[in-house]
């Protein structure tokens, strides 16, 4: 039987969690496109026999177009993430996040794909006066990355209205969990906290540490992305993919220290350019229309994540 699902960025941190979610839910095989820029074969190691891995780049339309033939749903997760990286070096992230995303929608339309589920970002909201952030708010992106991710949502709704391609966008809220790579200064903050605690070194907190984020465990995000492939009557829409809570960095560093059994004061540096102050998802629409049902409170997500780093680093 041919594969029904294709995941761009499927060898990455979130993409590989989605691969495992789809396989655990009964799929025989899934297809992955990944250029291995941040994706890693190790992320797919235990499932590699059931993955059709295409090492290619979404910037290359002619290369990806034939790979979408016969696919029912494309999950488009490939991206160059990070707010500060997009400020420092906007060209690569624009190429991948805007031109690459356009290629994916265009290839999906030409191949007759039924639906594209797109990984957007909570950064699209920018700073809002009111929390939690709800999908009806006017987006106010503060960085190239936030704007690039927003463009992908708009392309989804335009491909839906102009060409009849089903498109659902999910705004991911600070996803964390096993396999998040702590290897770059642009890595997700929790992966950096975990690494610092295990190495007994002080992390750097940018700003006063009282900024807050809706940290969302990767398996909850993967489950929601899967549900978004099949929910009826949602094409053209945008939904928050968050947990619904928010925690400060100071609180999180104290929790990570407890898990590791260390006591190390963090270093503090100047706030990061383009940083949003607070972030928290209103999950009402995602719960009602997609069946979103997050299972991992922050304590449990942190515990599982820390155990993974302890075993792997
Ligand atoms: C943003 C988006 C998120 C997106 C991600 C992709 C928001 C609210 N969220 O995450 O949806 O998926 O980009 O990259 O915009 N920090 C430190 N020390 C560090 C690293 C980070 O203090 O060593 C701070 C940052 O300044 C920030 C917070 O931790 O305040 C979270 O940073 P990070 O994990 O990079 O994610 P966001 O930029 O919030």
Primary descriptors:
alpha/beta; 10 helices; binds uridine-diphosphate-N-acetylglucosamine; two-stranded parallel sheet; Rossmann fold; seven-stranded parallel β-sheet
The kinds of small molecule bound in this structure are: uridine-diphosphate-N-acetylglucosamine
Helix count, DSSP H or I runs of 4 or more residues: 10
Number of strands: 13
**Under the CATH scheme, which class of the domain at 5-175 and 218-244 and 276-294?**
Alpha Beta
What is the element string, with H for helices and E for strands?
A: EHEEHEHHEHEEHEEEHEEHEHH
| Ends distance | 38 Å
Helix content: 25-40%
Strand order of the largest sheet: 3-2-1-4-5-6-11
- Overall shape: it is globular
CATH architecture of the domain at 5-175 and 218-244 and 276-294: 3-Layer(aba) Sandwich
CATH superfamily of the domain at 5-175 and 218-244 and 276-294: NAD(P)-binding Rossmann-like Domain
Looking at the structure, the CATH topology of the domain at 5-175 and 218-244 and 276-294 is Rossmann fold
Overall pLDDT metric: 97
User: Ranges with pLDDT <50 over ≥5 residues?
Assistant: none
Taking Cα atoms only, what radius of gyration do you get, to the nearest Å?
Answer: 19 Å
Task: Explain what the structure shows.
- With 313 residues, the protein is α/β, with parallel strands linked by helices.
- It has a domain at 5-175 and 218-244 and 276-294: Rossmann fold (3-Layer(aba) Sandwich), CATH 3.40.50.720.
- Helix content is 38%, strand content 16%.
- The protein contains 10 helices and 13 strands.
- The strands form 4 sheets. A 7-stranded parallel beta sheet has the order 3-2-1-4-5-6-11, sandwiched between helices. Strands 7-10 form a two-stranded parallel sheet.
- Helix 5 (144-163) links the parallel strand 5 and strand 6 (166-172).
- The longest helix is centred in the N-terminal third of the chain and has 22 residues, at 90-111.
- Residues 81-83, 121-123, 172-174, 188-189, 192, 203-206, 211, 213, 249, 272, 275-276, 279 line the site of uridine-diphosphate-N-acetylglucosamine.
């Amino acid at each position: 039987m041919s594969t029904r699902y294709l995941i761009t960025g499927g060898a990455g941190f979130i993409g590989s969690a989605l691969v495992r979610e789809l396989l655990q839910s009964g799929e025989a095989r899934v297809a992955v496109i990944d250029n291995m820029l941040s994706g890693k074969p190790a992320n797919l190691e235990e499932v590699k026999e059931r993955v059709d891995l295409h090492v290619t780049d979404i910037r290359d339309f002619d290369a990806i177009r034939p790979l979408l033939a016969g696919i029912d749903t494309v999950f488009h997760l490939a991206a160059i993430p990070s707010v500060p990286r997009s400020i420092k070096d906007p060209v690569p992230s624009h190429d991948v996040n805007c031109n690459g995303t356009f290629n994916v929608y265009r290839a999906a339309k030409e191949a007759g794909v039924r639906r594209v589920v797109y990984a957007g970002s909570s950064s699209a909201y920018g700073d809002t006066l009111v929390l939690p952030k709800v999908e009806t708010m006017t987006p106010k992106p503060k960085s190239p990355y936030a704007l690039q991710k927003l463009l992908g949502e708009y392309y989804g709704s335009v491909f839906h209205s102009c060409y009849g391609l089903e498109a659902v966008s999910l705004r991911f809220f600070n996803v964390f969990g096993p396999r998040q790579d702590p290897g770059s200064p642009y890595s997700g903050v929790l992966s950096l906290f975990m690494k610092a605690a295990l190495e007994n070194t002080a992390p750097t907190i940018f700003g006063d540490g009282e900024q807050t984020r809706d940290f969302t465990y990767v398996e909850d995000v993967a489950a929601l992305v899967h549900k978004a492939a099949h929910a009826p009557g949602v094409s053209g829409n945008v939904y928050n993919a968050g947990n619904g809570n928010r925690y400060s960095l100071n609180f999180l560093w104290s929790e990570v220290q407890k898990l590791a059994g260390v006591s190390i004061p963090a270093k503090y540096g100047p706030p990061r350019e383009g940083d949003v102050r607070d972030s928290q998802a209103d999950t009402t629409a995602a719960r009602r229309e997609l069946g979103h049902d997050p299972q991992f409170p922050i304590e449990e997500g942190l515990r599982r994540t820390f155990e993974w780093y302890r075993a792997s680093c």
